[in-house]
Amino acid sequence: MDYEQLLIDLRDGEIDEIVITPATFPAFQKIWRDFTSQNRIRGIAGKQGNIKYVRAN
């Protein structure tokens, strides 16, 4: 999955959210740690280790 493109789409308002599961988190984290617009996106912890990323208001 192209997490960098998903983050860009989320940042730009083209999508509303990204849901990351514990199984996909390691691959996502590699992209997230270098993503320069982290302050424009926030993560919301959910049940069973899922994290929903949305645009910060």
Describe this structure in words.
With 57 residues, the chain is an alpha+beta fold. The chain has helices at 3-11, 25-32; strands at residues 17-20, 41-45, 51-55. Strands 1-3-2 form a three-stranded antiparallel sheet, with helices on one face.
Task: Point out poorly predicted stretches.
Answer: none
Radius of gyration: 10 Å
Give the strand line-up of the largest sheet: 1-3-2
Please write the string of helix (H) and strand (E) elements: HEHEE
Instruction: Please identify the structural class as seen in this structure.
Output: alpha+beta
Dominant shape: globular
Q: Indicate the percent of residues in helices.
A: 25-40%
Number of helices: 2
The major sheet is characterized as:
3 strands, antiparallel
Distance between the termini: 26 Å
Mean pLDDT: 96
Q: Please report which band the strand proportion falls in: under 5%, 5-15%, 15-25%, 25-35%, 35-45% or over 45%.
A: 15-25%
Number-wise, the strands total 3
Topology:
Elements: H1 3-11, E1 17-20, H2 25-32, E2 41-45, E3 51-55
Antiparallel strand pairs: 1-3, 2-3
Q: Brief description of this entry?
A:
Helix content is 30%, strand content 25%. With 57 residues, the chain is α+β, with helices and mostly antiparallel strands. Strand 2 (41-45) and strand 3 (51-55) form a beta hairpin.
Offer a few descriptive terms.
single chain, 57 residues, alpha+beta, 3-stranded antiparallel sheet, 25% strand
